[in-house]
Amino acid sequence: MGAEALSGAGGARPRRSGAGSTRAGTGRGGTGAGGGAGRTGAGGAGSGRAGAGLTKSGKPRPGTGGYGKRKLEGKGPTPPAAMRPGHPAQRRASAAGGNESRDRRQGDDHGSSFSPTGPYMSSASFRSSGSSPARSSGSSGSTGSSGSTRSSGRALRGSGDSAEFVAGRNSVVESLRAGIPAAVLYVGTRVQHDDRISEAIKLAADRGIAVLEAGAAELDRHTGGALHQGLALRVPPYDYAHPDDLLARAADAGQLPLIAALDGVTDPRNLGAVVRSAAAFGAHGVVVPGRRGAGVTAGAWKASAGALARVPVARAVNLARALQAYREAGVFLAGLDAAGDTGIRDLELATAPLALVIGSEGRGLSRIVAQTCDVLVRIPVAARTESLNAGVAAGIALYEVAAVRSRLA
Fold it and tell me: In angstroms, rounded to a whole number, what is the distance separating the alpha carbons of residues 194 and 191?
């Protein structure tokens, strides 16, 4: 009896000890360790089954997440850069595809109210008629003004810079009044509305421009941290023409070509002023270099007062080669230079196909471009005046050429 009682007591004590160890396991290991001990009973079996994701003491193994590395699955091979979302190569591929689809959509729609290619026939249709002056010149007509093959030059058609944003209430309202083509008007969510915001929303709605609300952080990101005052206008990239298109435009109108080319002009407002003068005096377009020169931006649209919708701007990869291609097509080149030998009113080439080349206000024409010109002309100014603004000089020269042609007509 004593032995049995002792045995029974001894058997009861291990059960109490097991229960105690379970509680102790719960206290030491937290919820995970206590749960493991409760499921596996009292000890040895639980530590054996927990080896995949738990330590011997019942704690989760660090770095495995409780599953073990055999449970992890690979993501497969790394996709090409053009297929990775957010990668620069993927963005370039998407932009190229969007430009091609946009060109196809615009193939039969040249009458858009704000399309810069609307007023003139595309160079593709002009070349199909067999009357392209650049092709009739023979030697370098297939090279084009960009200095590369015609097919690679055509790849530039429709390519523009990234979208721009006009920031600030006054700037946005003035841009909408001037008819600048815009895609989206962003209005701050927690800004106090005034007459300018109300007018901007009304002008955008009348023109079919989307109006979206945006937070302060989003407006700061779009405008690059500029003082937007809760209002920003997104301007889409400009569709540049090809330099040959300007000759095609003159041929379609049955007129002598008159083209303005800018060399080293970096202020978009000067570009807008030149385009405005070109529209006023009958020029057929403006050529700008692809690098180190102003492009069509929101500031250029604003300075042109809507003239960019009527006068095309062509972009050349190499301006000197573009001008050389014009020479081979029968167009004379006249560069504006303060040290020129011929006054603008004495320019006999005004009655011939002509391209006026305007340099920057500070450095003037570059050496290579000046050597390409047939003649250097000057605008007489007072002795105390060093130079004229590029936009002003272009306006004076275009007016004098237009005056000579009108007298002959």
Answer: 9
